[in-house]
Structures are given as C-alpha cells and as structure tokens.
Prior knowledge:
A hairpin with a 2-residue loop joins β3 (about 70-80) and β4. It contains 5 helices and 7 strands; from the N terminus they run βααβββαβαββα. It has a single domain (about 20-185), classed as Gcn5-related N-acetyltransferase (GNAT) (Aminopeptidase), CATH 3.40.630.30. The protein has helices spanning about 30-40, 45-50, 100-110, 125-135, 165-185; strands spanning about 20, 55-65, 70-80, 80-90, 115-125, 140-145, 155-160. It is globular and about 45 Å long. The chain is α+β, with helices and mostly antiparallel strands. Coenzyme A binds near residues 38, 39, 96, 122 and 131. Coenzyme A binds near residues 89, 98, 100, 126 and 132.
Amino acid sequence: MNDHRLYEQDAPTGFGPITIRHMVLEDIEEVARLERRSNALPWSLNAYATEIGNTVAHYLIARDRDGTLVGYGGMWIVMDEAHFTNIAVDPSARRRKIGERLLLSLLQYGVEHGTLRATLEVRERNKVAHNLYLKHGFEDVSVRKNYYSDNQENAVIMWLENMASPEYCEHMRRGMEIADAWDAANTP
Length: 188
Ligand SMILES: CC(C)(COP(=O)(O)OP(=O)(O)OC[C@H]1O[C@@H](n2cnc3c(N)ncnc32)[C@H](O)[C@@H]1OP(=O)(O)O)[C@@H](O)C(=O)NCCC(=O)NCCS
C-alpha cells in the first residue's frame, strides 16, 4: 500500500503521476496564476507570500508528471479546527481526482496535527465544489447572505465533524486508494 502522508516537503507521493507537496515561496507565482483562472475573486501574490510565513497556514500544491502545477489548497489550523481558505484545480486538469487528493491530504495533515473538525465556505451555486465537500462528509450548517463581493452570492458554511475518528480515517484511506486505482487505470 502507498504511504498516503502526501505532504512531506521533499517526498514525492506514490500516486502515479501526481505529486503533492507543501507550497513554498518559489511556487506562489504559479499558484497565483492558477488562482486567476479558477477564482472570481483571486488572491494577490502578496497574500500568498504572507501565507507562506503564517504559522497557522498550511498549503499543498499538486504537480503533474511534467512538473506543471495543476492544483493547490490550503487551510488554517486554529486550535482543533481546520479552516479551509481555498482549493482549486487547473481547468485543464479537472475531474482527475486531484481536488479530492488535495482535500483528503489536507484533512489528513490536520488529523495528524490534532484537528478534530473542519469548516469552509462555498458559493451557493458552486455545485461542483459542494459535491466534492459532501462526498467527503462536510455538511451544510448555515448560509451567509450576500457574502461574495463580486456578485453578492450567498456562502454556504459547511462543517466536517469527527474527522479524527477511526471511521473517518478509514474513509480518507479508502478515498486515496480509489484515487490511486483511478490513476493506474487512466494514466498511459
Ligand atoms: C472544485 C474543484 C477543486 C474540484 O477539483 P477536481 O480535481 O476537478 O475534482 P475531482 O476530480 O477530485 O472530483 C471529486 C468530486 O468532486 C465532485 N465533482 C468534481 N467535478 C464535478 C462536476 N463537474 N460535476 C459534479 N460534481 C463534480 C464529485 O463529487 C467528484 O467525485 P466523483 O469523481 O466520484 O464524481 C475544481 O472544480 C475547481 O478548481 N473549481 C474552481 C475553484 C473552486 O470552485 N474551488 C472551490 C472553492 S470553495
């Protein structure tokens, strides 16, 4: 079985063509470029530079076999809670379970650092991301009206409880295994 602790700085994963690592300063220009292709309200380069120095922030990037940056995601760990800040996959690399790998890798990192629950907000009309979070146990808890400044869209606030439970750890392990199998079946 592969070691699914995907976030070690210098450790490529056993995940077929995708490697997942911690984001470092050298990555942020590419991350900001990808962000502009994926987010209507993209963060600035400076915002990412600040996050690199933020001790509660944890960011992962995903690179394809040829080294192209194909995704990133991040969260803040505050006490025993993980607060997701963003997650995105390049439009050209979607539906390859990269978003799922990033989400599960961040959650696993959180569990290994004492996190018991996780939260995020998602645009009400972003059914793709909402599906991803529902698939991995997040539940709708509340709505923040007119939250997004570009179009006044509502934000759905989601929470994942009990993420350190044996059942959820097994869910993460199984999710990674399925992503492995998907890669093996779909990578030439
Ligand atoms: C949301 C996002 C990160 C998903 O990344 P991805 O790598 O394409 O997604 P995955 O291949 O890992 O899919 C995982 C799950 O997400 C959901 N999903 C992904 N694409 C979907 C689609 N087009 N339609 C419906 N559900 C979808 C499904 O539940 C899927 O599980 P499945 O493969 O068993 O059906 C990506 O679409 C993205 O970057 N969107 C723009 C940025 C964004 O909205 N970020 C979230 C901010 S809250």
